[in-house]
Known about the structure:
The complex is a heterodimer. Chain A is an all-alpha fold. Chain A has helices at residues 3-26, 36-47, 51-66, 70-88, 95-107, 109-121, 123-132, 134-164. Chain A has one domain (3-164): Arp2/3 complex 21 kDa subunit ARPC3. Helices cover 84% and strands 0% of the residues of chain A. The radius of gyration of chain A is 16 Å and the shape is globular. By secondary structure, chain B is α+β, with helices and mostly antiparallel strands. Chain B has two domains: 1-30; 38-133, Ferric Hydroxamate Uptake Protein, Chain A, domain 1 (Beta Complex), CATH 2.170.130.30. Chain B is built from three helices and eight strands. Chain B has helices at residues 3-29, 63-68, 96-99; strands at residues 38-45, 51-58, 75-80, 83-89, 92-93, 101-107, 110-111, 126-133. Chain B has a five-stranded mixed beta sheet. The radius of gyration of chain B is 20 Å and the shape is elongated. The N and C termini of chain B lie far apart (55 Å).
Amino acid sequence: MNWRSKARDIALCGVMAAMLELGKLALNAIANVEVVTLLVLLFARHFRWRVFPAVLVFVGLECLVWGLGPWSLSYLYIWPLLAALGLVFRKQESPLFWAILAGFFGLCFGLLCAFNSLLTGGFYYAITWWVSGIPYDLIHGAANFVITLVLWKPLDRLLTRLVSI
Amino acid sequence: MKKNTRNLLIALCVLVVLALVFLAIWNYARPQPQQGSKAITVDVVDDQGETRHYSLKTDEEYLHGALNQIDGLTLDGYDSDYGYYVTTVNGLRADYTEDGAYWSFYINGDYCMEGVDSQVVTDGDAFTIQYELAQ
């Protein structure tokens, strides 16, 4: 790998992280509706391993914006896990497949975060924490499904074109 | 029907069923409101660490309504997608955007899992409202 492609990768990671953060902030006013899931899956499909540093930079930016909290630790494994899923299934073409994957991720978001609560507060705390957030997880899953189903095809085409330049 | 399409439809069905299971778990496990009179206590810990103690007998089922009944305790805030967000207690404003300050709510020593609108009040509950700073 020469220095030019290294510089390009670093720049690409920066642009991806900025898009993730902007996407998050843009829809911040609407509870549990976000485009980060869609973008992480698209980035994993098109830019492969480069999505991981981008996701970690995004988590760092989130900590800078909101301060450190129990969620910070969860973010360190939740978003890379999604990126890994995107990478594993990158050959899938159907928008419905990606919408279902995004739906599962949104629905299980609280459950995934609860693993962190398990370490910090114990089993009962983690279960109570997860159950109280289930209505928000249902919204998150439904919103992820619809957003991904609608936006997958045009964004996927756009990225395919951009990558080939 | 192609095998891939069939698999996707099965996955979609699993997603819907999982959502329904989660909804059923939430409906079964969430705290149920208690009718009738309840005696509760509320401690307010301000930014200097000073505590003001309040006691109340109330028929309110949720914390927000109960807090509004306490003489000498004032709340201010706004409605958000997550319910009522308390910004000011007894005239002391916690501004998260300025210095990461917020009011946190505890029930019987544990962090409240619900907002003030949906936090159920039961007889004997001891609530603490504490001014805290994000780390």
